[in-house]
Design goal:
Two copies of one chain form a homodimer. Chain A is mostly helical. In chain A, 30% of the residues are buried. Chain A has a two-stranded antiparallel ribbon with strand order 1-2. The longest helix of chain A is centred in the C-terminal third of the chain and has 25 residues. The first copy, chain A, has one domain: Arc Repressor Mutant, subunit A, CATH 1.10.10.10. Chain A is built from seven helices and two strands, in the order αααααββαα. Chains A and B meet through helix 1, helix 2, helix 3, helix 4 and helix 6 of A and helix 1, helix 2, helix 3, helix 4 and helix 6 of B. Chain A binds a DNA duplex (23 and 23 nucleotides) through helix 5.
DNA sequence: TATTGTTATACTCTATAACTATA
DNA sequence: TATAGTTATAGAGTATAACAATA
């Protein structure tokens, strides 16, 4: 047995699976961001959470759950971490006092701006890698897959 | 503030990010498999590990690390769990006694066959969802992205 | 009674560091 | 010294269950 390089390992059907390539691409994207993100002390998941909060001031955790399909306890913990780092505030809203409206702090906006620059740089590298392949068709395909696999 | 449905939440630039759609599609795929896989007591990651082991009998952990880009301790723990469940064997190889060749047991082959059927059913659903979009172009695009983001 | 959110707890996945054994 | 693999430990990320506050 002497498999010196990855190409000599038989991955056969695995590499023909859509799901496998999807995972490879997704983990490559996360891994690529993880180092520069670490300096900002945010994760890719927190970046996307903060982006939604920025675009939707006073959004509630329940709304975020519909997007992320996580358990509410998971979301609560994630929010708590962002609040603890002073990136997000949780404000009592007028009306239903069970709701807590989420918004970015000034520090949160700064971190988000830096993270966004990193993400967009990666986006450009991915677009370049696509070459002649139509990006919009790719995006549409990914959305269709999400729709097909979604079960509510 | 009254955001009753997901579509009313402004996701704006987020949904235009390739990385975001990639993650959505990948987590949809995992989530979709998680329930049927739970009955087999394997994870999607274990499925792909077992597939590689099946195709490459007596493969070593070091070889798997080049494919998965994990820490060797992570791989060791993953292998140990599969061995503990009697799905994989770790055999001393002739020659260098530091290596342990991994192979599937009969039980491992059975579990893998059942898992493969589930994965391939999902693959067909994803292909159907693509409609007129060229699957091969998609696969090529994903491989290019992985290549572009890989740094060794 | 139902909903929003929190907390306690546990399991998985991952990495770092220190280790054993072999080379 | 270097490599293959293990173990101990710790940090994310996730879920379930039980809870408090509010409706």
């Amino acid at each position: 047995m002497d498999k010196e390089r990855e190409d000599e390992i038989d991955l056969a059907q695995l590499t023909d699976y859509f799901g496998y390539q999807l995972r490879q691409a997704q983990t490559a994207s996360f891994r690529d961001l993880s180092e520069p993100f670490r300096e900002l002390d945010v994760t890719p998941g927190e970046f996307s959470l903060m982006t939604i909060v920025k675009l939707n001031p006073d959004i509630r955790q329940t709304d975020l759950l519909r997007i992320y399909r996580l358990d509410k306890s998971t979301m609560s913990v994630a929010v708590k971490r962002l609040v603890g780092r002073g990136l997000v505030t949780q404000d009592q809203l007028p009306g239903d006092r069970r709701f807590h409206g989420l918004s970015l702090t000034e520090a949160g906006r700064e971190v988000l701006a830096a993270a966004t620059a990193l993400v967009e740089a990666q986006e450009r590298r991915m677009e370049d890698a696509l070459g002649d392949i139509d990006k919009e068709a790719m995006m549409k395909a990914l959305r269709r897959i999400v729709g097909a696999l979604r079960r509510d």
